What we know:
The chain has 58 residues and is mainly alpha-helical. The chain has helices spanning 24-28, 52-55. Keywords: GTP-binding, Nucleotide-binding.
Amino acid sequence: GAVINKGLNDEVKVTVIATGFETLEKIKEEPTLEEIDFDKDKISYNDLDIPTFLREKK
């Protein structure tokens, strides 16, 4: 709904009602971790000083 309050002059007040937040039980759940296999020989440590967005343009 909307209300006009002439006493506010040029001001606007907004009330937000948010819903749909997860319950505390869901928030407290531990995130699951999974192992990732990768080839350690393919890692190039020479490029680490270059930001990722520049490295990936090569």
